[in-house]
Amino acid sequence: MEQQNAAGDDAPVRIDTSKPHPARMYDWFLGGKDNYPVDEELGRQLVGFAPVIPVMARMNRAFMHRATRWVADQGVRQFLDIGTGIPTEPNLHQVAQDVAADARVVYCDNDPIVLVHAEALLRGTPEGVVDYVQADARDTAAIVEQARRTLDFERPVALSLIALLHFISDEDGAYELVERLKEELAPGSYLVMSHLTPDFHPEEASKKVVDLYRAGGLTMDMRSRERFARFFEGLDVVDPGMVAAEAWHPELGEPVPGQEGVLSGAYVAVARKA
């Protein structure tokens, strides 16, 4: 399938609708319309097995809102969101610029459909800046190079990796890409991350979810708390530490409808680079 790219160029954006994509599935879980039958098919299989998955997706997104607001309240005015996914309001830049109108935000994703909708992402406050980078998360050099058009890496940046790294295996360089990005961050920067884990659910249930994703041609590596913690080596994790998404400063946001009694199934943390 071809669509015009967001910049209005004549070159078409090619969208592969032959296999599911995590960003489009996430959109479907959130009730969006920017997905295709192949995404819905796998999404329905997952929800058929675990009906709470859409609520879990909203709980993960609610953590992103709370963490972004918290980091902005610490004085950070630059944000790099890798694996941003399809726009769902409020977006990260709207949360950050609600705290600080001059916040500068760069979104990055590798799914062309996100590029198609980039114009929606690029509407920030007059005082702030919002930009978009199309690149694979593993191509950290390209991401940083393009992000430098908007962000000053000599000053603190909040790096958001929300619901991304469980789609990248150890063998495919998950830890290495995070280390490369951490090296680029100035002191006073923050790493904000959420990650699916098998720790909160029965082993057979987690295995079934992994198997469904893999049957759809997608990598899925739910990491334990110990493996999740490796991403934060060399950083100072802020309170309340590495916890379930619903346990990270719930007072900073509103409960997700249907959240009561539901486990998010994800570890989250926010950590500062000294």
TrEMBL record:
InterPro entries in the record: SAM-dependent_MTases_sf (IPR029063), SAM_dep_MeTrfase_SAV2177_type (IPR006764)
Gene3D superfamilies: Vaccinia Virus protein VP39 (3.40.50.150)
Pfam families noted in UniProt: Methyltransf_19
CDD domains noted in UniProt: AdoMet_MTases (cd02440)
Domain of life: Bacteria
Protein name listed in UniProt: SAM-dependent methyltransferase
The organism of origin for this protein: Streptomyces pilosus
